[in-house]
Amino acid sequence: MKGGLSAPGDYIHFKSQVPLHKIPIGTKQWRYYDFGPKVVPPLICIPGTAGTADVYYKQIMSLSMKGYRVISVDIPRVWNHQEWILSFEKFLDAIDVHHIHLYGTSLGGFLAQLFAQHRPRRVKSLVLSNTFLETRSFAAAMPWAPIVGWTPSFLLKRYVLTGIRDGPHEPFIADSVDFVVSQVETLSRDDLASRLTLTVDSASVESLLLSDSFITIMDTNDYCSIPQQLKDQLSERYPGARRAYLKTGGDFPFLSRPDEVNLHLQLHLRRVGVEAQPDMVRSIPKDGAGGSPSKGNDEKKDPDDQPKDNEGNPESTSEESQLPPTSGSSESHGLDDQLLSNAKNFTMGHEDSIVLLHSALLKHQRTVVTRILLQSTLEFFIFSLLPLYITDHKSDSKPLIIFASSCFGL
Q1: Structure confidence by residue, pLDDT tens digits, 112-166
Q2: In Å, how far are 219, 233, 260 from 228, measured between CA atoms?
Q3: β partners of residue 216
Q4: Residues 6 or more apart whose Cβ sits within 8 Å of residue 50
Q5: What does DSSP assign to residue 26?
């Protein structure tokens, strides 16, 4: 995994067991995981601005072993909400999925509602977590949105990461933040620019044909980047929705409180009539059929997380290892025990590599110093050129000044 020296043991186990797919659909490339019995209507997880398909790995492993099908997707490079709706619909057609259940967090929850509004026959239920109904407040807080497509990658990453609460966290929340930050490092400039554009592009969710009884609102009560006022608006819009509040969990409860989130997701799926098929959980065949239902879309596996700038070179999964057999839903904690055991084995197996890790750490520190110097040089360069640009474009100077101030914390 990029962006850090090490990855969580259970994430390494996940990557060794669950195939990653990349398929081109039109001009877009979709990156996703698809795991679980194909006869079960899928739960599709859509991440927020800072997330990738990987952030839901704990839900994929846990729910799939209980007999549910889980699909986790990256938000593709789309630049308006209508393009998102059309692209997502083509993706569902390509993987031969018709009726879906959506779980969206933050921006992902907003996009899930928009799709349910415009394609009501396909969406059977919604799980919404720390999300919102309209983008007006985000557009007001980002006056430099018109030039987001020209903004350097490191400034976009800084802007996205400043939305994550800083400061001391309890260990599980701190780990969830570290994991998401490492995923942000894998995103390209176009990935970040398109997601920020979706966040500020003027739109709001209108009334849904979906009954409130098929909606679950799952929010954290400690803190998150979405203002409480926007979360309250969501609750008022769906008064009949089931509430599943988490006492703590921060911005990423699916990582910091996976047991609670997985339980609420399982209860939601049962409530809306999705029947799990634990007897159909089996090991992944070597031809990759266990990873995706589409026949012609799977080629070779991405060796890990390759840079997402290679959009024109779609890859899918390579050799897939076999999942250990499961005894069904009666062993609800069997997967957690297995992941913990694998994490311990992974740690013990690397005790002899301490010297190598120390060397890698020193190399990483030198790299960080170099990056800081390069970034400072670029910031100095940008500020040196701004007065010249403003002199020639006085009428357009205000957005640039606001942009520079928000990016550099002035």
Answers
A1: 999 999 999 999 999 999 999 999 999 998 989 889 989 999 999 999 998 888 7
A2: 10, 9, 21
A3: 127, 242
A4: 160, 161, 163, 164, 180, 181, 183, 184
A5: T
